[in-house]
Structures are given as structure tokens and as C-alpha cells.
Amino acid sequence: MSAGRIFQVVIVMGALWIWGSPGMSRAAENAVRRLDQIETHLSEEAQKLEAAQLREKDLLAELSMLQEKVRSGEAALDRLNREQRALEQEIESRKEAIAGMEDAAAAIEAQLARRLNVFYKFAREGYLKTIFSSQGLRELLHLIKYLKVIVSRDGRELQWLVEESSAGRQKIAELEAGLQDALTRHRALEQQAAAMQEELGGRVLDLVKVHQEKDFYETAVRELEVAAKEMRDRLSMLKEEESPSKERAFSDFERAKGSLQPPLPGEIVSAKDFLSKNDLDQRKGVFIRGDEDTVKAVFPGRIDFSGRLKGYGDMIIMNHGRRFYTVMGQLAERRRKTGEWVEAGEVLGSVKGGGPLYFEIRTGTENLDPREWFGLP
After folding, report:
1. Which residues constitute the signal peptide according to the record (predicted)?
2. Low-confidence winner among 15-24, 92-101, 239-248, 347-356 (lowest mean pLDDT)
3. Which of 25, 95, 290, 350 might form a disulfide with 354, Cβ 3.0–4.6 angstroms?
């Protein structure tokens, strides 16, 4: 039950004792004491609400910072992914280039081998055969020089390919080392992002709890403010009740025994049709099945309570002074508010389809038989 609802019940039940007290000053003192209790509790709940609002503000600031960190981490991961893809593409391109160089080197090696083989054949057949097969010394020298130039050029080209291939492999090794470093940084960033997401989720749960606390305290403060206002209104009514006309009305209720008019014209019906056995033992009122729907006051008095109460539905409690009260329950409509002064015969509310209306007469906490007050056997 909420704090405000607790105080509302206290007000309703306490009214049967406070305003039935013989001395008005004593009733006022009791009301002041209860008002102090409500205002103290209201102050405590207001402080808790303020603390919850501050926690909410701090959590929102933390959430904003965490969200910014998460966005920065995601941007860093995106940049690292692009860097990683670029490295992988460059490594693949380098490997393709080296493969081409290796194919070219193999072709040059094969060509050089063929040329060396030819040159070797010339040497094996002997210089004389070479000389005699030539048209002259000049042609022979030209042939030897030509072979040397070709072999030398092929050797240089082969050496260049070998060096380029070696440099390419070294570059690939450097790129692969860079790629490995990028992968390591990528894993670290992913772990950091996961940790931030977990922390962010925890802060969101904390914020939900603080929201719930804040809503609870806001509701409690509103209900306590209403309860405090109602108690202040009651204190004002206590002062008004000192007027002579109302004092006389409060003093005459007991004389009306046997002549009261029922609040709803009709017949009294058995409560067994409407209450359980347990409720029958606790309630001493009567049910009235009406010939009409309008419910009226049986005697002048003040409305001490107009609202809903479990087991009674919509109900009105009237204070007739000297601790005499009438209770009208199971109303379909209430037309009077707490604190109003009502004369006998004035409309309090209505029932639906003739009711039934539940009606009690009490003095303090004792239930009286309404039949005797209506002058019925």
C-alpha cells in the first residue's frame, strides 16, 4: 500500500474517533498531531525524491559519456578494419608480383641454360673447328663477343629478378607483421568495446531502478500532499463547528431515535443475500432495497469521508456529533465531498436500480440497529 493510501485510511478510521470526541480542543490537538506526522513523512519522502533525482541526473551524464566512448570505439574499429583490408590487398598484390617474377626468372634461367649449352658445344668441338667453320677471324670474334653479351645480359636480368623477388618477400614479411599487429589491436578494441557495452548495460539497469524509485517517491509525495491538505481542511472545519447552529445539530441526534427517515425509501432486505458469513459477523448494518435511486441524509451533519473503501465500494460517512455517525455504502454515485455540511433530506448520492444500499448507524466504534432508529419492529 502506498504512503498516501495508508494516511487516507488512517484519516477515515481516525475520523470516527477524532470528531466524536467530547472536547473540540482535544479533537483539534489530535488533528494537529496527525498533520505533523503527515508533514514529517512528506518531508522525508521529498528528500528521498530529491536524492533519486540527483542519482538519475548523474547516471544520465555517465550514460552520455559511455555512449560517446562506445561510438569512438566503433569508429576506431571501422578504421582498423579498413587498414586491415588494405594490408591484405597489398600482401596479395605483392605475392602475385613475386609469382610473376619467379616465372620470369625461371624462363630466363632456361634460356640461359640453352645458350650456355650452345656455347659449351662450341668449346667442346674445339677452336679449330670453330675457326674453320667461320668465314674469317673477324666473324669468329664477332660471334664470341655476341655470345658473351647475351650471356652477360641474361645474367644481369636474372640477378635483378632475384634481388626484386627477395625485396618483395621482405616487404611481404613486413606487411604480414603489420597485419598481425592490426589483428592484435583489433582484438584489443573488440574486448574494450565489449567491456564498455557491458558497463553501458549495467548503467541502463541502474537508471531503470532509479526511475522506478523516483516514480514511487513522486507518487508518495503527491499522495502525502493530498493527505496533508485534507487534514488542514479538517482542522479548518473543527473551528467552523463551534457555530451555535451546528452545535445544536450535533446535540440533537440521540433525540431522533425512533423517528429517523431511511436514507432510501424501500424495504430492508436480508444481508445474507449480499454478505459472506464472515462479513455478516463483522457488519451490523442493513441493506435497503429502494423504490427509487436517490440517497438522502437522515440527519444534519458533516461529510467526514466521501470515497471508496474495500468491502464498501463508494461510500459516505456522516458525522452527526457526540460520536454518532451514519454510513452509506455500495453507492453508484457520490454527490458530496469530504468536509461539506449537509442538512437532513439533502441528496448525498444514488444507487443503481434501487440498490441495495448498505446503511449503518454507529456511536464511536459500536454499531446500532438502524431498525430501532427508523421506528421499525
Report:
1. none
2. 15-24
3. 290
Closest among 12, 31, 17, 9 to 304, alpha carbons compared = 12
Whether 321 and 245 have beta carbons less than 8 Å apart is answered as no
Task: Name the fold adopted by 253-372.
Answer: Glucose Permease (Domain IIA) (2.70.70)
Residue at grid coordinates 606487411: 175
- pLDDT tens, 196-220? 888 888 888 888 888 888 888 888 8
Domain boundaries, the chain: 26-241, 253-372
The region, left, alpha or beta by phi > 0 then psi within -120 to 50, assigned to residue 353 is left
Contact 274, 292 (CB under 8 A): no
Q: Name the most confidently modeled range: 196-210, 225-239, 316-330.
A: 316-330
- Whether residue 335 has pLDDT greater than 90: yes
Helix %, strand %, coil % for the chain, to 5?
70, 15, 20
CATH architecture of 26-241: Orthogonal Bundle (1.10)
Residues 6+ apart with CB under 8 A from 351: 264, 290, 293, 295, 330, 331, 332, 357
Q: Are 263 and 348 in contact (CB under 8 A)?
A: yes
Dihedral of CA 160/165/166/168: which sign? positive
Say how far residue 80 (Cα) sits from the centre of its chain. Answer: 36
